[in-house]
């Protein structure tokens, strides 16, 4: 199964929505909360290029945020990425 990591903040509704989709698909993921951790947030930005949360990586490839995750799923591409 794919390695999935998600940078999140506790009050983020988009993070909750992304987690719900992954859980619905029975995908295990590592949640990395960045609340109040400016160094970890900076690492997330350098790693993904994104400034907002969630930032999601599948097999170390940044795929973007919640909308990007849902778009991949709607297009039928997410399952292929998760099977690599």
Structural commentary:
The chain is of the alpha+beta class. The chain has one domain: Glutaredoxin (3-Layer(aba) Sandwich), CATH 3.40.30. 45% of the residues lie in helices and 20% in strands. The chain has a 4-stranded mixed sheet with strand order 2-1-3-4, with helices on both faces. α1 (13-24) links the parallel β1 (4-8) and β2. α1 packs parallel to α3. The radius of gyration is 12 Å and the shape is globular. The mean pLDDT is 97. One of its GO terms (cellular component) is cytoplasm. Residues 4-63 form the Glutaredoxin domain. Keywords: Cytoplasm, Disulfide bond, Electron transport, Redox-active center, Transport. One of its GO terms (biological process) is cell redox homeostasis.
Main sheet overview: 4 strands, mixed
Strand order of the largest sheet: 2-1-3-4
| Coarse morphology | globular
Please identify, by name, the CATH architecture. Answer: 3-Layer(aba) Sandwich
| N-end to C-end Cα span | 7 Å
Which CATH class? Alpha Beta
Q: Give the full name of the CATH homologous superfamily.
A: Glutaredoxin
Average the pLDDT over all residues and give the rounded result.
Answer: 97
What fraction, in percent, of the residue positions are helical? 40-55%
Q: How many domains comprise the coordinates?
A: 1
How many helices? 4
What letter string, H or E per element, gives the SSE order? EHEHEEHH
Q: Look at the helices and sheets and give the structural class.
A: alpha+beta
- Tally of DSSP β-strands: 4
SS strand fraction: 15-25%
* CA-atom Rg in angstroms: 12 Å
As residue ranges, the low-confidence spans are none
CATH domain topology: Glutaredoxin
Domain Glutaredoxin: 4-63
Protein name: Glutaredoxin
Function: Has a glutathione-disulfide oxidoreductase activity in the presence of NADPH and glutathione reductase. Reduces low molecular weight disulfides and proteins.
GO molecular function: glutathione disulfide oxidoreductase activity
């Amino acid at each position: 199964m794919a390695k999935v990591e998600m940078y999140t903040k506790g009050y983020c509704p988009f993070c909750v929505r992304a987690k719900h989709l992954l859980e619905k698909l029975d995908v295990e993921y590592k949640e990395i909360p960045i609340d109040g951790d400016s160094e970890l947030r900076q690492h997330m930005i350098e790693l993904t290029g994104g400034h907002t949360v969630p930032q999601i990586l599948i097999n170390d490839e940044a795929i973007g945020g919640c909308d990007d995750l849902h778009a991949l799923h709607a297009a039928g591409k997410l399952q292929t990425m998760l099977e690599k």
